[in-house]
Design goal:
This protein has ten helices and three strands. The chain is mostly helical. It folds into two domains: 2-83, no CATH class; 87-237, no CATH class. Strands 1-2-3 form a three-stranded mixed sheet. Strand 1 and strand 2 (152-161) form a beta hairpin. The chain starts with a helix and ends in an 11-residue tail after the last helix.
């Protein structure tokens, strides 16, 4: 019996040692990746390459996930300073307003120009977490304000988001695609929230969405006529896209 206990203890100690060795190897690998990405950013800065160069180099090396992790965590402040970050929020579109947006009101070419202006302004990086997507680098998200007394859905501007932050904005759609849990994890990670805080916040957003059911909203896109966005103004002055009517 005593021999069996000794053998079991030795086996447990060996397992613990193996786990520690694996953790050490993983830490060393993470440190090597971190150092590699830091060197990429230094090279990009010295040679004055565009910000997207680091993204493409990491994509070729298969370490986009590590790049995002380091950027979101704040360890790569050269790529995305902490003081430039924003709180990630959910923005559920009312049922009656789904698919009624700027994109549906302008031509494909006009939307492409507006979207590109937003991307350029943000240097092709998410304006919330500083990250980039895996399937596509960034998305253009429309920012709307809802006046429940006048039932007006007013365009307030655009923001450049990675696909993960964009998924959080439309977490209702993420749920239908089986990605609701992933979206909540990203929301919690970016904002530094606990699971309880995240679930309470998401529930509150869905309660607000339920309250707006049955309301018929009118789109106000006057922002496109008086945009303070330098890039969008340039497109407008050059006649590269038409003005969308004020309220529809």
């Amino acid at each position: 019996m005593e021999n069996m206990e000794n053998m079991e203890n030795m086996e447990n100690m060996e397992n613990m040692e193996n786990m520690e060795n694996m953790e050490n190897m993983e830490n060393m690998e993470n440190m090597a990746i971190f150092s590699y990405i830091k060197n990429l950013e230094e090279t990009r800065s010295q040679k004055k390459y565009k910000p997207g160069w680091v993204y493409h180099e990491c994509k070729k090396a298969g370490i986009l996930e590590e790049l995002n992790e380091l950027t979101i965590s704040g360890l790569l402040v050269e790529l995305w300073p902490l003081n430039e970050r924003k709180i990630l929020s959910v923005e559920l579109v009312p049922l009656q307003s789904q698919y009624k947006n700027v994109r549906s009101k302008v031509s494909k070419e006009e939307w492409k120009q507006i979207r590109e202006a937003v991307y350029q302004k943000a240097n092709y990086r998410c304006e919330v977490c500083g990250g980039i997507g895996k399937d596509r680098r960034v998305d253009c998200h429309e920012i709307w304000d809802y006046n429940e007394e006048l039932l007006i859905q007013k365009l307030k501007g655009f923001v450049c988001l990675c696909q993960y932050c964009h998924e959080v904005k439309h977490i209702g759609y993420a749920n239908t695609q089986g990605r609701g849990t992933d979206a909540k994890k990203h929301l919690a990670k970016v904002n530094g929230w606990t699971d309880i805080e995240t679930n309470e916040y998401v529930k509150k957003q869905f309660d607000e969405w339920d309250m707006r059911l049955g309301m018929k909203w009118h789109l106000d896109t006057a922002y496109l006529e008086s945009s303070k966005d330098e890039k969008v103004d340039t497109f407008k002055k050059e006649g590269k896209f038409k003005i969308v009517r004020r309220v529809s």
